[in-house]
Amino acid sequence: MEKENEDKKTNSIYVRLVITIVLAIFSVTMIISGMSIYAIGKCMNMVFAEGYNEIKYVIYSIEAVGYALVFLVAILFSVVTVMIAGRIVKPLNQLMKEEYELSNGDYEVDIKPSNIYEIDALGTAFVKMAESIKEHDHHQHMLAYRDSLTGLRNVTSYKSWTSRIEEEIKNSDTKFGIVVCDLNELKETNDNIGHEAGNSLICSAAQIISGVFKRSPVFRIGGDEFAVILKNRDYDEGNELINKLDRRCKNEFITAENKTIPVHIARGVAFYNSETDKSVVDVFNRADDLMYENKRNIKTGMK
User: Is the pTM of this model over 0.90?
Assistant: First the structure.
């Protein structure tokens, strides 16, 4: 790859050097020719200054040719300069456009290769920079909106989602539900077996909940507490999914320190009612109350 870039750089330098030399020789030749013809015309004009109108006409024609050659060289030089500038300015304008898109969060940079080595190298560096920024931004987003233990969305992400839903409540007739889940026996597991076993219990619960609510955003909003926002198909099938979650938890266990620990998840679900609910918090609170009721029922059944 490095050899290919070096060859491309060398070829680019040779091509531009040859073009520059040819243009310089051509321009100097044309200027000298024009000036020579102009000088000859002047000299002949001085010699025949006293008469011979026909000869003077020829002399004036020679002078005109000299002027024309000089003018032609100037035009040619201007055209070549504009062409060369265009080859440089066009890719630079593209870089400016991509920089603007990048500053607005669009990391899909599309820069065409350039025959000018320096411009091509600058474009390649720009693409690599965009990829690096994209990767860094993704990493920062993961840190800000993802739970490091389970990989689920975190409480910050939950607040962002509920803020958008609050706007929907104000501006339209929206449909959504909230599931609140709580992992039973986490404190006992941490105290009696260890936090590593407790973390395994949390991760197992996260996998079960996200496995049941595959089409919905799942959040870890506390140490042992999870939330799910139901919309669209999951909203319509909310109660069926709750039953599915209950069935899954009956047969889920983890093993730690040669002990089998059941994964018991208490849950409650509530659906937005435009007549009684003023905000997302109202829906959450009803789901939270139902979750605690289910939690008491589970503990009663365990006795």
Answer: no
Mean pLDDT for the stretch of residues 21-29: 60
- CA 25, distance to chain mean position in Å, is 50
Q: Which residue's structure tokens are 């599915």?
A: 244
List of residues 6+ apart from 91 with CB closer than 8 A: 111, 112, 114, 116, 119, 123
- DSSP annotation of 222 reads S
Residue for token pair 């959040």 = 219
Is residue 261 within 8 Å of 255, Cβ to Cβ? yes
> Does pLDDT of 14 surpass 60?
no
Terminal CA-to-CA distance of the chain, rounded, Å?
70
- Strand arrangement, sheet containing 218-220: 218-220, 225-230, 177-183, 265-271
Separation of alpha carbons 118 and 110, rounded Å: 17
Q: Where are the domains of the chain?
A: 2-104+113-138, 155-302
> Which top CATH class is 155-302?
alpha beta
Q: How many other C-beta atoms lie within 10 A of the C-beta of residue 83?
A: 9
Q: How far apart are CA 154 and CA 227, in angstroms?
A: 10
SS3 state at 278: coil
